[in-house]
Write a structure and sequence with these properties.
Layout lengths: L1 H12 L8 H22 L7 H15 L16 H13 L3 H27 L2 H12 L3 H8 L8 H16 L6 H18 L4 H14 L7 H13 L1 H10 L3 H11 L5 H16 L14 H22 L2 H7 L10 H6 L10 H26 L2 H5 L1 H4 L10 H4 L1 H7 L7 H25 L2 H20 L4 E4 L1 H10 L5 E4 L13 H8 L4 E5 L3 H9 L4 E6 L2 E6 L2
Parallel strand pairs: 1-2, 1-3
Antiparallel strand pairs: 3-5, 4-5
Helix pairs in contact: 2-5, 2-6, 3-4, 3-25, 4-5, 5-6, 5-8, 8-9, 8-10, 8-18, 9-11, 9-12, 10-18, 14-15, 14-18, 15-16, 15-18, 16-18, 22-23
Length: about 550
């Protein structure tokens, strides 16, 4: 008995391991669920792959073999091939597959979740608010998972880069002394890297850069400024080197390819950019379309941008204790510390004003980045001509979520009697979560059809291999996908609907098919190319239908 009492006494005096707060544990579980959901989609052949993604896969295959080291997406002089370099080690180990292309992108998504948690904590300080942001980012509508998981160039890597730039800006502006030079170099490198990868993030880079220059201007003089500029040049080195070697402007090429010279009415652009775009870009729509009730976010978004912008601007303009109050935290004395801890807020002193103002300035930059992204998309022709598919250009809006939802959170969590503003703020947050959840369920429902389509493509590959086919003519969305899936054992050249040469991103493929004495023709059943080939009957070819594909084989 005495021994038991002594042991209990020792256990009582022994220091206990610190427990993670409930929001932290929940955020970890929600984040793992978000990653697991996306991994399940990948294993279910969702989202569907295509020839654009296969083009990036061919670049990864060539890098893995040491045959080529492309700067840009094959067939164009913009959009860096970073995804191909990330996937090349897996392609080298496991061979060409869609999963090998997408696993590095899944890791980038997990990194974005982690950075978003950290950024939200740094900007607002509330763990429950950070949990809310992580929960929204863990959900994944059709358009969202396509942006995050398809290795089509440019989109999956931009969000973690943007969140990283925001965190580095906070560190540099608040004056963290440790590793300051490394942070400057990191900011410059990431800014330069995004110019090479995809200029879509430029509104965020410029807004965060303006905060950095405005609040640490003197610190950027001399060696540190040179370090920042030098790191930016290193990040953008592939783009700059290509431009110098070929006398080409990749930014102008990107604008032209984005439809800058095409015609779309302003009514269509405004509808696509400001009505459909926000709901699609934030993951609130069903696959391929937006129901009318899912468009409520188009009305809420401009209101939130204004409210969040005014709140952040007032905090930036304030000083001392006013800055603390404007940021939604009460000015406290030492004897108030207990109440602050109970309210899950940090004890704030007057000398914390700089950190509070820095957080508000970064929130303002994130909002400015969102406005710039929306404006650039709305004035572009793709917003009017192909609003559903081109809403991928708004994928960066997810970076602004902590700043955008800040007004709703601060109003919804206010103490005191429940009033209309609190009910409206809480209702908007619940509606946002609910709409995103419905859109996620709709995306999950597409897995069976996507898996069936992937199985049909595998049947096509097996049939061609069994019959010893090595050279094929097909449509654009068939060719590079077929070539990548076979590791270039089968080479495909593109034909358009009139049986003329189409868009081939690698010139070697059409040359090889033209030189073949008896190429095979392949097209999906019911496609324009299949109908044309059925009517023209390629010479000395016998038709065969396999798993939804029409194949014209040469006679033996």
């Amino acid at each position: 008995m005495t021994t038991g009492v002594r042991q209990a006494a020792r256990d009582a005096t022994r220091p206990r391991a610190p427990r993670w707060p409930a929001p932290v544990v929940l955020a970890l579980l929600v984040g793992l669920a978000g990653v697991g959901y996306r991994l399940a989609l990948l294993l279910g052949d969702t989202p569907r792959t295509n020839s654009d993604e296969a083009t990036m896969g061919l670049a990864a295959l060539h890098i893995a073999r040491g045959e080529d080291f492309p700067v840009f997406f094959y067939g164009q002089a913009y959009m860096g091939a970073l995804e191909a370099y990330l996937a090349a080690p897996l392609v080298a180990l496991a061979g060409p597959s869609v999963l090998a292309l997408r696993l590095p992108l899944l890791a980038l998504y997990a990194l974005f979740l982690l950075l978003s948690w950290r950024l939200t904590r740094r900007l607002g300080g509330y763990r429950w608010f950070a949990l809310l942001v992580v929960g929204l980012l863990a959900l994944g509508a059709d358009r969202i998972v396509k942006n995050q998981l398809i290795a089509g160039g440019g989109y999956p890597e931009l969000n973690p880069i943007g969140a990283g730039l925001a965190l580095l800006t906070l560190d540099l502006v608040t004056g963290r002394p440790a590793g300051r030079r490394w942070r400057l170099a990191g900011f410059g490198f990431l800014a330069g890297l995004t110019v090479w990868v995809d200029p879509l993030l430029l509104p965020y880079v410029l807004a965060l850069g303006a905060v950095l220059v405005t609040m640490t201007g003197r610190d950027l003089r001399g060696r540190r400024g040179v370090l920042l500029a030098g790191a930016a040049l290193v990040g953008a080195a592939p783009l700059l080197g290509y431009g110098l070697a070929h006398g080409h402007n990749p930014l102008a090429a990107a604008v032209s390819a984005g439809g800058g010279d095409a015609v779309a009415s302003w009514a269509d652009r405004l509808h696509g950019g400001l009505v459909l775009g926000p709901a699609l870009g934030m993951g609130l729509c069903s696959p391929g379309h937006c129901a009318t009730w899912q468009l409520w976010w188009a009305l809420a978004l401009p209101v939130l941008l204004v409210l969040a912008g005014v709140s952040a601007w007032r905090t930036v303009r304030a000083d001392g204790a006013r800055a603390v109050r404007a940021d939604g935290a009460r000015a406290v004395r030492a004897d108030d510390a207990r109440a602050v801890r109970a309210d899950d807020a940090r004890a704030v002193r007057a000398d914390d004003a700089r950190a509070v103002r820095a957080g508000a300035a970064v929130r303002l930059a994130l909002l400015a980045g969102a406005v710039g992204t929306l404006a650039a998309y709305t004035v572009s022709s793709p917003a009017g001509r192909t609003p559903v598919e081109s809403s991928r250009y708004l994928s960066c809006l997810a970076i602004s979520l902590p700043a955008l939802l800040w007004p709703l959170w601060t109003v919804a969590r206010r103490r005191g009697p429940v009033d209309l503003p609190r009910l409206a703020a809480a209702g908007a947050l619940v509606a946002l979560l609910g709409t995103a959840t419905v859109a996620t369920a709709d995306a999950l429902a597409t897995v069976p059809t996507n898996r069936a389509e992937a199985q049909r493509h595998r049947a096509l590959v097996e049939t061609l291999r069994e019959r010893g086919v090595r050279h094929v003519y097909g449509e654009y969305w068939t060719c590079n996908r077929l070539t990548y899936a076979t590791g270039e054992e089968i080479v495909c050249a593109v034909l358009d609907e009139t049986l003329r040469p189409g868009l081939d991103r690698l010139p070697a493929y059409p040359r090889a098919v033209r030189d073949s004495p008896a190429p095979t023709y392949v097209a999906p059943v019911g496609s324009p190319l299949a109908r044309r080939l059925d009517h023209s009957q390629p010479p000395a070819r016998r038709p065969l239908t396999v798993a939804g594909w029409r194949i014209w084989l040469p006679h033996p």
